[in-house]
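Researcher: Next entry: ABC-2 type transport system ATP-binding protein (Microbacterium murale).
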Amino acid sequence: MSAAIEITRLHKKYQQHTALHELDLHVRAGAVFGLIGPNGAGKTTTLRTLVDVIRPSSGTVRVLGEDPRHGGAALRRRIGYVPGELHLEGRASGHRLLAFYAEVSGSNGSTTSVLRTARDLADRLGVDLDRPVRTLSKGNKQKVGLIQAFMHRPELLILDEPTSGLDPLVQREFLSMVREARDAGQTVLLSSHVLSEIQQTADEVAVLSAGRIVAEGDVASLRLGSVRRVRVRIGGTDAVVARAAFERLAGVEALDVVDHGEGVQLSTTIEGGIDPFLKTLARYEVQDLTVEEPDLEESVLRLYGDRSHADTAPTTRRSSRGRRH
Ligand code: ATP
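Model: Predicted structure:
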C-alpha cells in the first residue's frame, strides 16, 4: 500500500533543545492515523514539518510523494491543515474567509461546490458563518478552521489537536466527518493528547513521548486504554482492613486509602483487567465509584516510561503488524 506520508530519521532541534529524535513514521494512503502523546511530546513539531511551516534539522519528509519544501502551492492544495493554534482575528465573516480559501485551494471542483460543502459543514458543526470571525468563540473559530481544511475534500488532512475547544456533541460530529473522509479515500493524520478520541477514529496509532515514537500499531495492541484510575468510597470498614484487601490485587498500583467517616476513601490506578478489583469491592457497601481514563502522560509513562526517557537506547516499537517500512 502506498504511503501518504513517509518520514525518515526526522530530527528537529530548537537551539539546544531536541524536540524530535530521528523519527520514522509511515502513514498509509487511505488510513486514519493518530499521533498521540503528552504535552510537549513533539506532535505539533512533526505536523508543522509536513506542511513546511518549520524545517527539519535533518532527515527527510515526503508528503503525497513530494518534499514539502518544494511542493509549493500545488502540494498545499492537496492538503487540508488545521494548525494547533488557530488565529482568526480578521473583520471578515466566516463565509468571506472561506470563500477566499476556496479560491486559493479549491482544487477538487468549482468554488461554488466547495462553498456549498462549507455551508453544509457549518450546519453540521453549528457555526454562524455570517459573523466576523474575530467575534467568534474559541470553539466556533476552531469549527471554521475545520471547515477550511475539509471543504475542498483534499487527499490528505493534517489535523493538529482538531477537537480542542469543541463541546462533546460537536466532537462526535467531527469524528463522523473523519470517518466519511476515510470512506471517500482521503488520508487523515490527526494528533491528540486525548486517548479516547483516537480510539474512536484511528486505524493506526503512533505514541510520541519526548520526541521519540515509543509504540506504534493499532489502538488495541497498545493497551493504553488498559490503565484506569479508580476512586471509590466504601462503608463499614477502615483504612487498614481495606488496604490489606486491595493492595495485593493484580494490576493495583499507587493505592491510597484514608479513613472517611464510617468508611474509607480509596483511590488507585489499575492496569489490565478490572474484574478482580470489582469482585473485591462487591464485598463492601459501595457509596460512590468513579472509573476514569488517566491522562495520556500517566498511561504512556506507566506502559512505556523507561523507553520514552531512554536517551541512547534504540526505540522499540510495539506493533501488531510489525514494522511496515
Ligand atoms: P502539545 O500537546 O503541548 O501541543 P506537542 O506534542 O505538540 O505538545 P511540540 O509543540 O511539538 O509538542 O513541542 C515539542 C518540544 O519542543 C517541547 O519541549 C517544546 O517546548 C519545544 N518547542 C516547540 N516549539 C519550539 C520553539 N519554537 N522554540 C523552542 N522550543 C520549542
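Model: Note for the record: The domain at 3-222 is CATH 3.40.50.300 (Rossmann fold).
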